[in-house]
Design goal:
single chain, about 110 residues, mainly alpha, globular
């Protein structure tokens, strides 16, 4: 029986992330009627790999995407076009902002009782 070569540390980290995403993240996205992505004010060179993978899966699965953006967030042009709805300047402490988000989720999830 031959021994498999030891993977470098970063390869193990990527393999662990990939396995966790396939086991936990992807099934949640697949079973969701609507998806939310929170976009914060970030440095353009600072990537959130988990968010990038989630967005890719959302787009490939053709899931409705609500993009929730905090004040000051820069929204990439193509991401804005891909989103079904963009909620800008969202403040979780603002009651009106909470209602806008709740209404959007209800609309896109089909849970509207009207």
């Amino acid at each position: 029986m031959s021994k498999q070569p030891k993977q470098p540390k970063q390869d193990r980290a990527w393999a662990d992330f990939s396995e966790a995403f396939r086991k936990d993240g992807l099934p949640k996205i697949m079973s969701s009627a609507v998806t939310l992505t929170l976009l914060g004010d970030r440095d353009p060179g600072d990537w959130d790999i988990k968010q990038a993978v989630e967005l890719g899966a959302i787009l490939l699965l053709d899931k409705p995407l609500i993009l929730v953006c905090v004040p000051g967030a820069t929204i990439p042009t193509r991401l804005r076009r891909a989103a079904d709805l963009v909620i800008e300047d969202w403040d979780p402490d603002n009651h009106a902002a909470q209602e806008r988000l709740t209404d959007a989720i209800t609309t896109f999830s089909g849970d509207d009782d009207d």
